[in-house]
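User: Sequence recovery, please. Input:
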């Protein structure tokens, strides 16, 4: 595939928008939450590139939207006006996966999404009411979480979960599916209970399907991080970098989001013709990365000896020190530190196999965690990045920014803004019942050519 064809596939040769079409497109993007309220629009240069228009046409359209009240002035630019407001005491009920009955946010996607939902709700004057769900958790009192709201933990599918008391202050519901699979029957029963209020399902694992038995008129699914388009987008980026032979590396390839990313990569490289190839290095571990590596860590390390050592220390240590250390020992160590160590160990084998293929010039890693471990591995091996290999991850995490890793950004801020706006004003619900996907972008950093 030549460079012109690659650009055409990546959508860079869209025709420009006439003034009327540009105005309609911009207005729709603002109302759909692509540009969050109270936040300045991107620079004119970026908007001109995105909409393929001239400065004069863009400026005229923005001035029109300002006169219509959809925008307000922000220094030298504009920012969208809040289009949806809520009465005082209004709440949005959010359900998110919980870890060990103690904390929401097991994954980067969970952390970013819950934080963005909270800040977006509060910007609109709405109280976010968080519930953590899981398969084995008991009902617990409200607790403070890493996110700044309160949360109640409920067993998934339990009568407590299904029959949560509803009242007029509840504007709608958001269900986050970011790490664990959820039985379809549970979703159907739960949605039937919430009556006619907006229900938004944020699916980051690709498990939720729209079926005829699901008749809730105000239910919509937003697909985040789990479609083949994401892998295809990253594949086009690598083709433009001249990478003809690519490795796909994933230690948790039973997860649908990993499978879909590989599908997108394969589609683009097959269409590129002869001389292009994808080599696959994966483990088919359970979809929940956290569950698998937690179990593996506990099987490898003796948790009883760790517990005994901690108890001996706690009997002699000051009470304030014990209170400070206990959450780290009971949650951080088994749920994060040890699983991360086991993940690193399993990745070494995949990296060794990929490095043995000399013609491979790029590693597409399943997420930023894998990609960052790949950078450390290659540094130990004395392999230059990007001199010898290109590395790309997914999530655009803080660690990716810190280590200058090229990564795919899912535009979670735009997704969350659109979800919350749809709850606040059901008129903004997407008309189609097809899962909504907002395209992300590659954030290229200095480690890539």
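Assistant: Recovered sequence (449 residues):
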């Amino acid at each position: 595939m030549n460079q012109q064809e690659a650009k055409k596939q990546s959508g860079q040769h869209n025709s420009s928008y006439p003034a009327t079409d540009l105005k309609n497109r911009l207005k729709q993007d603002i109302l759909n939450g692509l540009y969050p309220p109270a936040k300045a629009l991107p620079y004119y240069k970026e908007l001109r590139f995105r909409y393929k228009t001239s400065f004069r046409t863009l400026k005229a359209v923005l001035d029109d939207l300002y006169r219509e009240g959809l925008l307000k002035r922000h220094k030298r630019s504009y920012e969208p006006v809040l289009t949806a407001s809520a009465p005082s005491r209004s709440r949005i009920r959010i359900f998110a996966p919980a870890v060990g009955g103690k904390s929401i946010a097991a994954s980067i996607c969970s952390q970013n999404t819950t934080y963005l939902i909270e800040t977006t709700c509060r910007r609109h004057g709405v109280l976010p009411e968080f519930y953590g769900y899981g398969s084995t958790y008991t009902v617990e009192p409200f607790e403070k979480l890493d996110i700044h709201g309160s949360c109640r933990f409920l067993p998934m599918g339990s009568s407590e979960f299904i029959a949560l008391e509803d009242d007029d202050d509840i504007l709608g519901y958001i269900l986050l599916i970011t790490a664990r699979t959820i039985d379809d029957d549970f979703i159907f029963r739960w949605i039937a209970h919430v009556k006619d209020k907006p229900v938004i399902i944020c699916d980051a694992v690709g498990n939720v399907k729209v079926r005829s038995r699901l008749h809730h008129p105000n239910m919509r699914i937003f697909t985040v991080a789990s479609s083949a388009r994401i892998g295809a987008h990253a594949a086009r980026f690598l083709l433009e970098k001249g990478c003809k032979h690519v490795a796909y590396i994933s230690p948790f390839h039973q997860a649908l989001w990993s499978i879909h990313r590989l599908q997108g990569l394969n589609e683009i490289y097959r269409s590129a013709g002869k001389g292009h190839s994808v080599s696959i290095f994966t483990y088919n571990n359970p979809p929940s990365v956290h569950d698998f590596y937690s179990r593996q860590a506990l099987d490898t390390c003796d948790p009883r000896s760790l517990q005994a050592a901690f108890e001996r220390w706690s009997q002699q240590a000051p009470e304030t020190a014990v209170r400070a250390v206990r959450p780290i020992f009971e949650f951080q160590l088994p749920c994060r530190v040890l699983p991360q160590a086991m993940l690193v160990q399993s990745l070494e084998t995949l990296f060794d196999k990929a490095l043995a293929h000399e013609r491979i010039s790029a590693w597409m890693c399943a997420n930023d965690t894998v990609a960052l471990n790949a950078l450390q591995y290659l540094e130990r091996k004395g392999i230059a990045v990007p001199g010898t290999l290109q590395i790309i991850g997914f999530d655009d995490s803080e660690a990716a920014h810190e280590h200058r890793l090229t990564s795919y950004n899912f535009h979670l801020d735009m997704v969350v803004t659109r979800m919350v706006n749809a709850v606040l004003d059901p008129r903004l619900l997407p008309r189609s019942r097809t899962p909504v996907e907002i395209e992300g972008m590659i954030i290229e950093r200095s480690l890539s050519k």
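The chain has a mean pLDDT of 75.
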